[in-house]
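Record passed on underneath.
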Amino acid sequence: MPASIFNLDEDSVDVTKYKSDVGDSLKDNTTARIVPIRTSFSEEDVRHNVFADPDIAAHYALAYEKAQYECRHAFDPHIQWSKEEERKIVRKLDWHVCLWACIMFFALQVDRGNLSQAVSDNLLDQLRLTTNDYNLGHTIFLVSFLLAELPSQLISKKLGPDRWIPTQMVLWSVVAMSQVALSGRSSFYATRSLLGLLEVGISTTSE
């Protein structure tokens, strides 16, 4: 598949006003093509699909090409769909993406909430920890979280989030369950660090 599905042909669409934005990034031998299939559009078309306006489609096609956007080959301003098709895909996303995202974030918060509740009971006494030890463990979690942010995103890009996120979920779940075997300061710090490293891919914000 070519780099883009568009043709930078000034006879087929007015791209003059966008040339100042893309500058020298437009080469004579570019494979990008912008070929709108119609020259007129209604307000209803634009409300339903903003790319029905050929000027807007041309603008974003050129912007994607200039930025070398990795998914620009999938950009198709001419695709059409019915309202019923849109309702079906939204419903499917709600059940297959949003629902599981809510479940995953709920599971993520269980560990964090349980720790706070355990501290309000007798966790510190059982593990022979001081308040400073607990605060240091929390700091270790945050530092580990921050340090793993970029590497986790790079791994996700390499392996794909559909593989990396489930892997992280399994790993941090194992670490979270292993906290029942905590015996002191060292094991507490170790699990805090591992959880920070592994949870970073699930949540973009820390505690």
Q: What stands out?
A: The mean pLDDT is 76.
